[in-house]
Automatic annotation (TrEMBL):
Pfam families in UniProt: HTH_1, LysR_substrate
Presence of the UniProt keyword DNA-binding in the record: yes
Protein name in UniProt: LysR family transcriptional regulator
PROSITE patterns on file: HTH_LYSR (PS50931)
Matches recorded under Gene3D superfamilies: Periplasmic binding protein-like II (3.40.190.10), Winged helix-like DNA-binding domain superfamily/Winged helix DNA-binding domain (1.10.10.10)
PANTHER family recorded: HTH-TYPE TRANSCRIPTIONAL REGULATOR LEUO-RELATED, TRANSCRIPTIONAL REGULATORY PROTEIN
Family classification: Belongs to the LysR transcriptional regulatory family.
CDD domains referenced in this protein's UniProt entry, alphabetically: PBP2_Nitroaromatics_like
Every HTH lysR-type domain range: 7-64
Organism annotation: Sorangium atrum
Keyword terms, alphabetized: DNA-binding, Transcription, Transcription regulation
Residue ranges of the region described as Disordered: 307-331
Length: 331
């Protein structure tokens, strides 16, 4: 049996961050320590666990199978420990220096993150918002694996996952300004003459949003001839601006990118084609006051609703109201 009193908990924290970053240099930067300190901790972790954990792979480091199996459990344990300690301290958003991690695709990175970051800077001026991709979310084991405080996107309700609606984003077409075929609308008759740009976001594979669009098109007897596949909407818009290809994307990101690129938005021949965008977080962070503040800022900002700040006293009053007879949901 392992003697827990001989294990340095800080060693486990350094190990978790190093496995997430897959780089001693990036882990040191994130932890605010020297690279040699991270390397020494990694050597001690290897001895403790009897496994190389990370091995050289080109310019980076690749986790061993044992490390891949360990990371979700380690991250969850560290997240629970952090939440336990944070929850028992009086939370002051003005003085909190927490790093909060938000996962989202590039459409939300472009259209949603800027106003959220500005609002969070007002509520938690000393905190740091870290935005990661959907690739990171999938590769790291999802919201349950730890290390993530919230995610914006198209979500299904799963055990341990809380979901709150944010907004509905209609799907539109994007073409270059002087497109020779497409006018103000993308007509059914133009489909066979056009090439389309497909966007595969999670690990280079079609996601839920892609499946919804394809299902709606097939129901109307429409088929896209895919000429180009890219991993994000920014690349899709730039390709549409430089060719006769047509890109489909959420209206919010099309509007944001259209203000910088020579493209225009066209309506689709399929009615009510859009995505229900929501905020998701895991049960393990539900009572974490810093994560709750981030969620509150995101909801109020993206729902275009006003509201108060993230101070501890109002939060406790809301929790008391829910306990006394209020509803469910919230942050």
């Amino acid at each position: 049996m392992v003697n827990l009193s001989t294990i340095d908990l800080n060693l486990l924290h350094v190990l978790a961050v190093t496995l997430e970053e897959r780089s001693a240099t990036r882990a040191a930067r994130r932890l605010g320590v020297t690279q040699s300190a991270v390397s020494n901790a990694l050597a001690r972790a290897r001895e403790l666990l009897g496994d190389p954990l990370l091995v050289r792979d080109g310019r980076g480091m690749a986790p061993t199978p044992a490390a891949d199996e360990l990371l979700p459990e380690l991250a969850a344990a560290m997240g629970q420990l952090r939440s336990m300690i944070e929850h028992r301290r009086v939370f002051d958003p003005r003085s909190s220096t927490r790093e909060l991690t938000l996962a989202c695709a590039d459409n939300s990175q472009i259209a949603d993150v800027p106003p959220v970051a500005a609002a969070l800077a007002r509520e938690m001026p000393l905190a740091r918002l870290r935005v990661v991709s959907i690739d990171y979310l999938v590769a790291s084991g999802g919201m349950s694996a730890g290390g993530l405080d919230a995610a914006i996107g198209v979500h299904k309700r799963n055990p341990g996952l809380r979901v709150a609606p944010l907004y509905r984003d209609p799907t539109v077409g994007v073409v270059r300004h002087d497109h020779p075929i497409v006018g103000q609308r993308l007509t059914r008759g133009s489909f066979p003459r056009l090439g389309f740009i497909d966007v595969h976001i999670p690990l280079g594979r079609p996601g839920r949003g892609h499946a919804m669009v394809e299902q709606a098109l097939r129901a109307q007897g429409l088929v896209r001839r895919i000429a180009l596949v890219v991993p994000g909407f920014a690349a899709a818009t730039m390709a549409a601006a430089a060719s006769d290809l047509v890109a489909f994307m959420p209206r919010r990101v099309a509007v944001a990118l259209g203000s910088h690129l020579p493209v225009r938005i066209v309506e689709l021949p399929v009615k009510d084609l859009g995505h229900e965008i929501s905020l998701a977080w895991h049960e393990r962070t539900h009572k974490d006051p810093a994560a709750a503040c981030l969620r509150k800022v995101i909801m109020e900002t993206l729902r275009a609703a006003g509201g108060g700040g993230c101070d501890e006293a109002p939060q406790r009053k809301r929790q008391q109201r829910r306990h006394d007879g209020g509803g469910s949901g919230g942050h």
